[in-house]
Amino acid sequence: MPEGHTIHRLAAEYAERFAGRPVRASSPQGTFAEGAARLDGHPMTSADALGKHLFLGFQGFGPGVGWVHIHLGLFGKVFFGADDDPGGAPAPTVRLRLAGERGYADLRGPTRCALVTDADKAAVAERLGPDPLRPDADPQRAWRRIARSRTAIATLLLDQKIVSGVGNVYRAEVLFRHGIDPYLPGRELTPAQWHALWQDLVALMPRGVRSGRIDTVRPEHTPEAMGRAPRVDDHGGEVYVYRRAALPCHVCGAQVRTAELAGRNLFWCPGCQQG
Question: DSSP states of 205-259 as a string?
Fold first, then answer.
């Protein structure tokens, strides 16, 4: 499932291509045909990301309805192309195509693609935890829930009601970077540890928005600094533990471990993450 940096990156791309201009909208798959017909010919006003939720704002296509709410889920993808692309005809699997003077965007396989009101959008925001990529995020909202929970911190970080936008990669990496045992109950985390975790997410995730990949290793642990081969993985990016099970830790040399926790694969270093 795409992590929050991907959704913020998509919001910026949609805004760059379509904001302030009327768009042509269609649903080759047919599932969103009625919604696309209502959008067609109306201008996009904005694009906003809340954690893993994407909202595309439109003007004038209906009373009380102002947004396309998109959640990619496990299989959703967005492809951007140019109008003069010879392969630009939409595939029959496209849920929503938006097209304009600066190209088109094809949405396929999302968990959700629906027209919603301002009130609906606000309700989504209300049930989500703070998003490290948003300047209006309040980390104390998350801390109040973490500090009284017996649940493992690795599970809490993936709970979108506590912290929104953080996925499996960022949770594994940020816990490693601060030497925190992923099984530590939330209520045993100290305020200083939570502050450090949050500030690290606030620093790391915007890099992912800019680059489109997740890089979490410090300068002294890059392939160039260590004289090692770059990571080869379809997720891209240089990481410490994510999907590195049974490989030696870049810092202490211990074998990276993996286990299932709350239905997701957890990765950690038993040497570095004892605190």
Answer: HHHHHHHSS-----GGGSHHHHT-PPP--TT-S--SSTT-TTSBPTTT-PBPEEE
* List 9, 52, 121, 177, catalytic entry: 52
The SS3 call for residue 122 is helix
The answer to whether residues 91 and 207 belong to one domain is: no
Residue 59 and residue 43 in contact, taking contact as beta carbons nearer than 8 Å: yes
Look at residues 249, 203, 259 and name the one whose alpha carbon lies nearest to residue 228.
249
Confidence check: pLDDT of 235 > 80: no
Q: Which of 2, 28, 90, 132 is catalytic?
A: 2
The domain spanning residue 151 has which CATH number?
A: 1.10.8.50
Among 71, 98, 127, the domain boundary falls at: 127
121 is catalytic: no
Q: Which domain holds residue 122?
A: 4-127
Chain centroid offset of residue 154 CA = 17
1-47 pLDDT, tens digit each: 799 999 999 999 999 999 999 999 999 999 999 999 999 999 999 99
- pLDDT per position as a tens digit, 105-135: 999 999 999 999 999 999 999 999 999 999 9
- What CATH number is attached to the domain comprising 69? 3.20.190.10
Catalytic residue among 112, 207, 213, 264: 264
What pLDDT score was predicted for residue 65?
77
For residue 163, what are its two tokens?
A: 């912290």
Domain boundary among 107, 127, 147: 127
Residue 138, pLDDT score: 98
Q: Where is 158: in which H helix or E strand?
A: helix 153-158
**3 catalytic, yes or no?**
yes
pLDDT at 78 over 70: yes
Say yes or no: 148 and 264 in one domain. yes
